[in-house]
Amino acid sequence: MPELSWMKRGLCIALVACAAGLLARSQQNLTTSVVIDAHAPGRTFDGIGALSAGASSRLLIDYPERRRSQILDYLFKPAYGAALQHLKVEVGADVNSTDGSEPSHMRSRTDHNYTRGYEWWLMQEAVKRNPEIILDILPWGAPGWVGNGKLYSRDMAEYMADFIEGAKKHYGLHIRYTGIWNEKEYDSEYVKELKRVLKEHRLDTKIVCCDDYYGEHQWRIAEEMRDDAELRAAVDVIGVHYPQTQDGTLTTTHAARVSDKPLWSSEDQPNPGGGPFLSRDWNPGGKVLATVYNRNYVEGGMTKTEIWSPITSYYDNLAAPNSGLMYANTPWSGYYNVQSTIWVTAHTTQFAQPGWQYLDPACGHLPDRGTFVTLRSPGAKDWSFIAETIGAHHAQTLELKVQGDLKSGVVHVWETNAARTFEHVKDLKASNGVVSIALEPDSLYSLTTTTGQSKGTAQPPANTPFPLPYKDDFEKTTPERAAKYLADQDGAFEAHTCRERAGQCMEQVITERPIPWGPLPDPFTLAGDANWSDYTVRVDAFLDSAADATLMGRIESADVFEDGHARWPSGYVLELDHDGGWQLFSAKFKQAPQTLASGRLGHSAAGWHTVRLTFRGTTISAALDGQQLAKIEDKNHAHGMIAFGCDWGRAQFDNLSIEP
């Protein structure tokens, strides 16, 4: 039947023509025209920054100066690396705030010490590299004397004002913003009180509120501000933490969008919805962070994003490993890792500055996945366009139509993907005010009329493990400072004159429990290598009538957030009571401590003692002053770090040694 054959052939031709038309339309749909108009509306860009808090920068200050300066350049130096535009730091309180405790500047109402810790130093180094960097502060806890144990109090407002004044007086640092209390439900009356105290001290520091965590409720302050004029006047910026849900949806509410206040993602990560911490390599962490920076504005209206943390400078077996844009937690080696997230950040910070303006009609979504934002310089003709194509399946063509008095000549193109890292790949010339470019999938681009961008070239030495054998008699430690490589997890261990012996010792100096943010284990300070297995750790411990002491080994995890009620990390713990009792425990998170051995000395343990733990295979032995207390077999902990500590008393420690 020839007629049917012709019908089939015609149908085939029609189907082919239809498919060709669909393909043509599909290809046409992947060409996006964007009008860049200097007079378009948009919010003011407030910058990209990072948050040094939770003891996340603890080990950085122990790096040799040459390597430390290289790291700081990659973080803060303009046109070199991440070129961070905003630095927020923790106002310490000697309480565990994630990966340790940061020292307080006021341990009593009359104490004013602006030299403790490393945040003063870090702010100075940031300002030295970028005098325009914006400084911000936020507390995680407070000393116990504050408000008689209540953080939201007049005492706390004065505590914050004192920190701001100390920064200015002693270091010439201008703290531009302060928060309320990290990821805790806010108290609107305290917000108003803080504003009053700042005014009384004639401080122009603005208030960010309220740094709440995850979900629509984090924007609740915007609704309350509508009906409370005093609260509305007190809050200068609405800041939230992790504003993306598990499926990546931005949570910004209508009340927040119409509040006339800047909206910030005041703590964020390349892990939307508070999911697991990702590798900072291009895949997956770098790619995810590229979407976070753009989408926070495109979908959430947020004009600043701050990453916790600038650098992973804490031990790997603490909470939330690998939070930083960079990685540097082996100061004895000088090693550091300039991760992909540094260059993802540079794709915005090296192309737009705080005070630039977003151009809303030139911000949006690409048809085959991806987002783009456009910003222009204030009172000038420069503009920058940042686009990410993460998850796209095809190349997408962009036609940028430049209007108004913006530059439309040469446009410089920088690119990052699996094959390139922050490379200046080409220059484009506008034709009749139009710039065209094809964007490849899974890539990040910056198109700009500005110049001066660059990629830092400093290289680190090889990484090496914690040195063994290791000894420290603390004689070279600066008085009233922490010893190198020791990371306090609660309380504060500082160099002080030894009691009842010559020289200098480490003393735990916090005797009143602070107002906590999270878990509140007994004070201990940590060091070493999580891979250690067979070794001996010794320390001299001084106990008085109000202090106990502990020596710990094979600590496999010191992430106290795994068990908010644990006194110690997960490992072996030898506890010596001041009344002469002793216990050897196996401590595991979410389990009751298991007593492996115990006894009494028959006399008070007050005074100096040499405490020792030895691990060899499954054999664990404990000794005091050269005499064996116990030798047992146990398989609970096969490897891990060392620590020493106490209850909330002023125990002292000297002559730490670790031998394989």
Brief summary of the model shown:
It is built from ten helices and 36 strands. With 660 residues, it is of the alpha+beta class.
Annotate the secondary structure layout.
Elements: H1 2-29, E1 31-37, E2 47-52, H2 65-76, E3 86-91, H3 119-129, E4 134-139, H4 154-171, E5 175-178, H5 188-200, E6 206-213, H6 220-226, H7 229-234, E7 237-241, H8 254-257, E8 263-268, H9 282-298, E9 304-307, E10 311-312, E11 326-330, E12 335-337, H10 340-349, E13 357-358, E14 364-365, E15 371-376, E16 383-388, E17 396-403, E18 410-416, E19 423-429, E20 434-439, E21 444-448, E22 470-472, E23 487-488, E24 493-497, E25 504-508, E26 524-527, E27 535-543, E28 549-557, E29 570-576, E30 581-587, E31 594-600, E32 607-616, E33 619-624, E34 627-633, E35 641-645, E36 652-659
Parallel strand pairs: 1-17, 2-3, 2-9, 3-4, 4-5, 5-6, 6-7, 7-8, 8-9, 10-11
Antiparallel strand pairs: 11-12, 13-15, 14-15, 15-16, 16-21, 17-20, 18-19, 18-21, 22-36, 23-26, 24-25, 25-36, 26-35, 27-32, 27-36, 28-29, 28-35, 29-30, 30-31, 32-33, 33-34
Please explain how this structure is put together:
The chain is of the alpha+beta class and 660 residues long. Among the domains are: 259 residues, TIM Barrel, CATH 3.20.20; 190 residues, Exo-inulinase, domain 1 (Jelly Rolls, Sandwich). It has 10 helices and 36 strands. The strands form 6 sheets. Strands 2-3-4-5-6-7-8-9 form an 8-stranded parallel beta barrel, surrounded by 5 helices. Strands 22, 24, 25, 27, 32, 33, 34 and 36 form an 8-stranded antiparallel beta sheet that branches. Strands 13, 14, 15, 16, 18, 19 and 21 form a 7-stranded antiparallel beta sheet that branches. Strand 18 and strand 19 form a beta hairpin. Helix 2 packs across helix 3. It is globular, with a radius of gyration of 28 Å. The N terminus is likely disordered.
